[in-house]
Predict the structure.
Amino acid sequence: MTVALTGFNVAPQITKQFPDAVVEANDRAVVVKSGLLFKVAQYLKNTPGLAFDYLNHISAVDYYDYFELVYYLVSIEYNHSLVLKTRCDRNKPAVPSAVSLWRGADYQEREIYDLMGITFEGHPNLKRIALWAGYKGHPLRKDYLE
Amino acid sequence: MTLKTEPYVINIGPQHPSTHGVFRMRTTLDGEVVVDLEPIFGYLHRGIEKLAEERTYTGFIPLTDRLDYLSSMSNNLAYVLAVEKLARVLVPERAEYIRVIMAELQRVASHLIAVGSFLNDAGAFMTPIVYMIREREKILDLFEMVSGQRLTYNYMRVGGVSQDLPEEFLPALDNFLEQMPLYIDEYDQLLAENEILLARSKGVGVLNKETAVNVSAGGPVLRASGVKWDIRKADPYSIYDRFEFDIPTGTNGDCYDRYWVRVQEMRQSLRIIEQAKAQITSGPVRSEVPHLIRPPVGEAYGHIEAPKGELGFYLVSDNSIAPYRCHIRAPSLLNLTALRDMIKGWKVADLILIFGSIDICMGEIDR
């Protein structure tokens, strides 16, 4: 059975390394500041005992006031999982890209950029994936009108 | 005298018999050798994730059929599991067994097409795939008995399945379970040690273990590279903890291993179906669930080991009758990330074979 680590399990370790990174920790996820996302992700991937080597999926949710990005991380070695979240401003949505850590993020970040309109800084090839170049708007946003 | 050559760019697809749907590969070639490749897709984008936000929880089930249309039962199962997690719905025992039987039959059906079209791409034109379609038809007959459909079943419901097995189903399943192992033996005889297949696929398109994990590959692609990772064992859902089965893994991560893993998985699926058929109990097949489900505010991720890899639905609820957000973790999309690593340095003819060995379905990549 994959052990689902909660925010409470992991937040102290992250705080020890990056004192002001954790915004919120609950029984489902740990929410970190978007500026420190890459560093936290790198720490989670490379620390023995955590070793999140497998990025299961990335998802984005539009909450009107802000966007929430959901990273579902899995460690194949220890068979445990963690939900890592970050929030970004709706007016200037940008977060660091995770492609250099997990290449599985490549198409998923492009998809979120395409459909939700969030920019991933440092992505090697950030362009639309499902829709065509020149398409106006981002359909998965809640305020999108055709 | 040395010849000065320049790499040139050639498009394969979107309309091309080897691309298994509308898929385009922008390849850079040096002579016949592939130097670089960029997959281009989106031709089948229907906005299914957005459509989910306008439908009731039950009303979205038929749309899941249209993701990976070669394994609709698995898609149904992954989605209803996510909703059941979100709304905390319990499933009757008999329904769990029916679900397992359907999901494993679906795995066999999907692998038959995967292996058949892989051999087609290898140049064994039409003979193997016609054999395999013959067996797949028998599975479709079984599905038709329970759901009335042969491709988009819309069979599973939140809290169970839409209807009980008809009287003639179990005898027909017995019949199938008797014949199918013999057919798989036949494929092995024909193919497993076939010299041409070995020459074409052994050591071709190698994906090493580290890269397979790093690109989030799943299913047979990941296991062929030697990673023993199967959601049915790693995070058992439904009642998979009650069955005995092995996880076949490859050692080299080449095209042959991906073929071999799929054939072995068919045998394991038959083993699971045998056990499920022996253990199945009588009783209701659906728990009492309101027509309009209003899950409490929250989120849930339900995932299964689909034929092509891990299929998951991430659902967010705002306590209304429709999902606030529905994200689909499509295995084909992530397996496709590995294509570029497998392909570099191989010839165009191998490109077709390597691409076929990943077994993708455009329905779930583009969504």
Observations:
- Residues 22 and 70 of chain A are 15 Å apart (CA to CA).
- Chain A touches chain B through 33 residues (CB under 8 Å).
- The longest strand of chain A covers residues 66-75.
- DSSP finds three helices and eight strands in chain A.
